[in-house]
Amino acid sequence: MTGPSIPVGVATGVGSWPGTDPREAAAIVVGELPALPHLVELPDRGVGADMIGRAAALLVDLPLDTSTTAYRLAQRPGAVTRRARDLLRRDLDALEEAWEVAGRRGTDQPVKVQSVGPLTLAAQVELSGGHRVLTDAGALRDLAESLAEGLSVHVAEVARRLGSPVVVQLDEPGLPAVLAGSLAGVSILQTPRAMPEPEALAFLSSVIDRLESPVLVHSCAAGLPLALLRRSGAAMIGLDMSELTVADLDGVGELLEDGIALALGLVPTLGPEPAPGWRELAQPAVTLVDRLGFPRSVLATQVTVTPRCGLAGASPEWARVALRRAAELTRAFADGAEFD
């Protein structure tokens, strides 16, 4: 991995955003997230716009179609792949326009792009017979290679369009289920096996190692294999604070000790009324570093703040508030505010 580091002590988004207007979304994200804006995903647009559908626009020589149950590998590019590529092109056009308006072209200002990770992708995409790609080691290897190649091309295009460095986020919400073997199969006798951690690590690292950008591996799922992620080559690990348990404390501490940054989901996806203040939102992170025995200054030097997953399901008003609350938290952490 080469290139710039991932900014810490800043706010960023997870990826998804409510609505269907890419220009409006890009303008808001570039305006509200001055240190690390991101290329948004707008799943409300339907097929080709969700996390797995976005992969249809990135994969090289592995087109996707849809079945009655899921996305499926296809023999040749069809309507689904063409739609996914068109939506991605529109999103890039919108981000490039917002970037120009904000005067950020040719600066050192990084931007983040997101993609589903290889294991979650293989768990959600079907082979022609209806089995998950995950059940075929050769197909999984081909999928990981195709994703890595497509992401490299995507990153290069974003960097060229914006004249800025790019950070890559790999979303792996399905990783715990892949390791546990808890995914359903086409029949009760054909459920996917539990994947050993060394095998899962090899597939994830194969994608990270191909990218010439710093990588954030993100998941809002409970029970993340933090030791595996620590060895993956990722520069930052994204976690939802509401999913962490006492059993995760040692793993989080080892990440910080190894110099791996954290992206902590601290802001609720669906806005409560009244909206919580920064002290209330900061408390889980403060408690975490206190319990681990780290100085609170680590919240400014090794932590990036995000909303929790699923912001696409929020109202447009709360989505913008969530980004502002995340930015408020980073300022409080940087200022060494009193939280007690």
TrEMBL record:
CDD domains noted in UniProt: CIMS_like
Pfam hit, one: Meth_synt_2
MF annotations from Gene Ontology: 5-methyltetrahydropteroyltriglutamate-homocysteine S-methyltransferase activity; zinc ion binding
Source domain of life: Bacteria
One of the GO BP terms on file: methionine biosynthetic process
Residues covered by the Cobalamin-independent methionine synthase MetE C-terminal/archaeal domain: 12-330
SUPFAM superfamilies (UniProt xref): UROD/MetE-like
Name of the molecule in the record: Cobalamin-independent synthase, Catalytic domain
